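Section 3.1 - Work completed
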Amino acid sequence: MKQNALTDKPMNPAQILVMGFSTIIFMGMVLLNLPVATVSMKSAGLIDALFTATSAVCVTGLVVVDTGTYWSPFGQGVILMLIQIGGIGFMSMATFWALLIGRKIGLKNRMIMQEAFNQSSLSGIVRLVKYVLILTLVIEGIGAVLLSGFFIPIYGVGKGIVFAVFHSVSAYCNAGFDLIGGYQSFTPFVTSLHLNLVILGLLITGGLGFSVVVELIAFKRTRKISFHTKVVLSVTGILLLMGFIVIFALEYNNPATLGNLNFGQKILASFFQSATPRTAGFNTLDTGALKEVTKFFVIILMFIGGSPGSTAGGIKTTTLAVVLLSVKTIVMGRRDTVIFKKRVRSEAMNRAFIIFTISLILVLVMVLLVSAAEADHDFLDILFETVSAFGTVGLSGGITPELSGIGKLLIIFTMFAGRVGPLTVVVALAHRTQKIEPLRYPEDKISIG
């Protein structure tokens, strides 16, 4: 059992997750800092290498150098490896190797996997990890085949296959890294129905959550949909539809985004931009050219993010549902928060409010610090970039490469905290509340509101 060096106490699963992600990021930084990792054969520098490694492992997609032109094939391969490990989780990879060599998965490792996949029970956790690994390879493989049909005619067989594999993994893991070059993402292909639909399918599937996808695949046999899956699908559908309508309406006549597209292309581009803030990071429209009101709406979508146990970040769809419906319950003077004729447990409501509060505080503090360090940049752009980092989205208004060393370090911390921080704090608080307190202090009144 691993020990905490500071307290000599056994490390809990949340602490092990943090250490695991930190170790992988450090290894990625070392590899990306090698001269062979860049086209120029010069070292990228520790901060830029650390930023890129963190962005890849935390499946964010924010970049300080252009992925398609700055990094060599070796560097791009390292980034792809980090995205894959970060997307499905380092414990999934460790479990894969353990199963491959016939090692037994102990209770401690099962608890860590339970924490990583945000599962309420240890039952079936190893089986879920097996499904996740198989599902990931199958979906990414299908995505790569479909994308090959698009990229090979443009870039040739060799480069086309590389592009197909890289972007399939990046899309399914909701990473947002691309090899197109020039910080363009998929803007040159805004009118391509083929590319848009394949990428949308990959990123939405990756953002639903592994357990949800497994359940949907098994639906034909089981004919059962869990309460969790119903909530995830409902909130995801509502957010996609709402995002599409708002972006379509706000950007319809903007000549820098939707204005010059025909009606069908506007629908396609609007839907893509509705899906990608939660939390894929690709874009087919110039993010920096969006109207300010649209940027603010996208910030809200980025803060919400995807669903629990997925490759996405943010506070998660279920957290949003529980918080909003709990507020409605209190305002209406009702006792129970009910969704789909099911009562939400008080523990889940407490967890949702803790995640929401901690996430909001984290974002506000980091926006304040980044604003102080980057006084030359517009506040809305800083807010956009910071929330994008916290939600592990990767959309950028274009200021990331221009950040100072301090600004980059702050965004690095925000990406890392967005990937593991809120959940770690929640678990730590949950452990404390289970302890029996020696005494209870008397209640007193306080005015609220």
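Second construct:
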Amino acid sequence: MLRIGIIQLDAPFVQAALSGYSDVPMRLLAREYGCPYTINEVVLDRLVAQGGKRMRRMLAVSPVDHPVGGQLMGSEPEQFAEAADLLVEMGYDVIDINFGCPVKKVLGRCRGGFLLSVPDQAREIIRRVHDAVGRRVPVTLKMRRGMDDSTESERNFFSVLDAAFEAGLAAVTVHGRTVKQRYIGPSNWEFLARVKRHVGDRTILGSGDLFSAEDCVRMIRETGVDGCSIARGAIGNPFIFREVRALLDGEPLPPPPTISEQRCALDRHYALMAEHHGEALAGSLLRKFGVRYSELHPCAKEVRSAFLAVRTPDDWQAMLDRWYGDPAQYPPVERRTRPEALIAAGASWSCEPAGA
């Protein structure tokens, strides 16, 4: 079980906010594979107020997409609070504040992880957002373990963390890397254990290096965090959610998804994309997901290239028929515990929202 304020989840894991990925189709697919709570891709506070067709599509909430969190990024406390209020009006069940993005462009505009270096400003944003919406929905925070490995950075981290819970926030997600690390090097799970001991019975979710179901369960058991936030490990791999559930229920790890099971997930993802974005765009928008899906296929390199070549709905169908048609023509599917493409993508991964 995992509690986020008034929201009770039946499993201690969530799908993280993923820029350019965690739209309605990805979130709905994650739910169908067992994820109890999902978070929309991060959006800039000022763009929420501006509205527009693109922003309405990005912020859409399906009637079956609950509970769902809306993650905000910005730098001005008043703008943050106004955007949080608008997201609640749009139907979001939780407001999540982003103090974790390490992208250089974001930091240069005093957003995301930069706010960990200015704790007074960070605390004011937390207070304003909670004052604006905290009586209606839970407010949560995503942060990294500091700007760098300095003593001052750690002191600022715990100052912001304590202020978050004192203000009434329902939960905090902590990524085990510093802002300066970006996605390079290991996530420091020992730090997560320290954080959990520090806050006691308050809710902490851990993040970082969760590429398999075993990783998720190990993080929870080794660090004592209340749950885990699955990010890159969920892209093109909705199967991870049912696998984590099985392990937490004391069941054996399910076998890796067969070619047929992968085809079912891809067909469903395409249908959701076509419904939300239109069929003309569905195939091309799924290419970036396809790169991740390909990691599960026995012929990963060739399938990755095939996904990248998709341009039209016909291309998509032809690619699926070619690579996911007859399972008998491929070697058995083997589990990739730590997909190499995900690890290699660490240095170039971006949490930057559109329009940042």
